[in-house]
Amino acid sequence: PPTPLPRGQMFVFCCARIGEPIAFTVLFPFMYFVTDLNVTDDPRRLGIFVGLLAASYSISQFLSSLPWGALSDRIGRRPVILSGLCGTTLSLLMLGLSKSYLWAIAARIMAGLLNGNSGVMMSLLGEISDHSNRARAFSIMPALYGVGSTIGPIIGGMLSNPATQFPRLFGDSVFLRRFPYFLPCATCAAITGFGFLISCLFLKETLTIADADSFVNADEERHSSPSAASAASKGYWLIPQQCWPPVLAGASYAFLMVIYNEIFPIWAATPIARHGLGFQAHQIGIALGFTGVFSFVALLFFVPAERRLGPQGLYRTALLVYTPICLLFPFFSNLMASDGVSMPMFWGLLIVALAWRAVSALLAYSAYTVMVLDSARGTDMLGVVNGVAMCAQALSQAVGPPIGGLVWSWSQQTELV
Fold first, then answer.
1. Which molecular function terms from Gene Ontology are attached (predicted)?
2. How many CB atoms lie within 10 A of CB 219?
3. Distance, CA of 78 to CA of 200 (rounded, Å)
4. Contact 17, 369 (CB under 8 A)
């Protein structure tokens, strides 16, 4: 029988983890409205600036993920997680106070540099689970992402521009008129701040003293002899060979997801005349919220699917299912412009497409997390392996938005889309 997971620590883990997807997705509904920062007067070039804004977070996270993962192997998971939560909270408040494009970029860079929690939390989860309950434990990661990616866009869509959306409540607020996106960012900061408080009070350290000592001793040996230095440096910077396939699989997954996450809000907010959907921020938030709901539903299928196909087989199958639906999304602009399709029918079809994509994407992500953990078992480098995995994802997420933004801007300028 599977070993029971520690309920108290799992609750604390959930409080700490859920803030990150909320903080990451709150920006999506109003990402198109970066025009408010007076960065460009040409909406056809907007994709370039949105891409750079999205990439700034990933570039900085690429630089910080491996150091944070390695540091967690030395000093423990708990202090690194607390630092990440604090950094996320501060960067959200900074983003809400943005009045220029460079200020927004700085806030996203700060968020990436100060937060290496994804990889460290995967390490923590791997240390409080075993082979008998790993699928159940790691299904919690995408579950929290599903919940967070539901809440984040709803907060971002419903609370942005509150002085305009809710004039009776906030119409007289000079502050919220000057900073129209502060309220959603501050709300998310309160959630991550709560996670910091709960973790500070109740999160237990999972890195054993023996594991930490072995890592430190390896580092001391590296400095004591040339041969040991060579071996240790290879062990530190070049993770075991069996870890690379899942790391690269995660990088390819991240590349696909970040381009979708960037382009969908831009496309949805683009006027129908330019082959978009003409959505407002709250409508984008609703659509992305549905995505999060179905991401959560996908977890009902993960454990039996993982047992039947294995993590590698499930990953391949999920991506094969994912690809066709992405090719169908552009046709929704034609449905929106068609007089023969009612709005309820349009939303019904859109929700089906979003559900299809969300289920396949989250199954692939869940399988990926298990593959990384399995590849690192039997080594004393779990934190480093997860740090390298996060670096690879961050690099893909840094490259993806500029490419997606350039392709989008080019397609708009040439009227290809």
1. transmembrane transporter activity
2. 17
3. 8
4. no
Global pTM exceeds 0.70 = yes
The closest of 108, 115, 95 to 185, measured between CA atoms, is: 95
Residue, of 210 and 197, whose pLDDT is higher: 197
Place of tokens 């501050």: 186
CA–CA gap between residue 25 and residue 185 (Å, rounded) = 11
pLDDT-derived band at 313, boundaries 50, 70, 90 = very high
Output DSSP code: residue 13. H
DSSP H or E run through 58: helix 46-75
Q: Which residues contact 125 (CB under 8 A, 6 or more apart)?
A: 13, 137, 138, 140, 141
Provide the b/e sequence for 152-168 (b: ≥16 CB within 10 Å): bbbbbbbbbbbbebeee
Cα–Cα distances (Å) from 352 to 327, 329, 364, in that order, read 14, 11, 19
Q: Give me Rg for the CA atoms of the chain.
A: 22
Residue corresponding to tokens 């390896």: 218
Q: What is the pLDDT of residues 234-274, one digit of tens each?
A: 444 567 788 889 999 999 998 988 888 778 888 888 888 88
Average pLDDT, integer, range 213-231: 41
| CA-CA-CA-CA torsion sign (279, 284, 286, 290) | positive
Rounded to whole angstroms, the Cα distance separating 118 from 142 reads 11
Distance of CA 246 to the CA centre of its chain: 18
**What domains are there in the chain, each with its CATH number?**
7-413 (1.20.1250.20)
101, 37 in Cβ contact below 8 A? yes
Q: Are 363 and 302 in contact (CB under 8 A)?
A: yes
Phi-psi region of 415 (alpha: psi -120 to 50; beta: other; left: phi over 0): left
Could you give the CA distance from residue 35 to residue 254 in angstroms, rounded to a whole number?
A: 27
What is the per-residue pLDDT across 121-162, written as a single tens digit (0 to 9) for each?
Answer: 888 888 888 877 877 787 787 778 777 877 888 898 889 889
* DSSP conformation letters of 178-199: HSTTHHHHHHHHHHHHHHHHHH
Q: What is the pLDDT of residue 223?
A: 43
Q: Could you tell me which of 15, 385, 417 has the C-alpha nearest to residue 191?
A: 15
Nearest-angstrom CA–CA distance, 131 and 236: 25
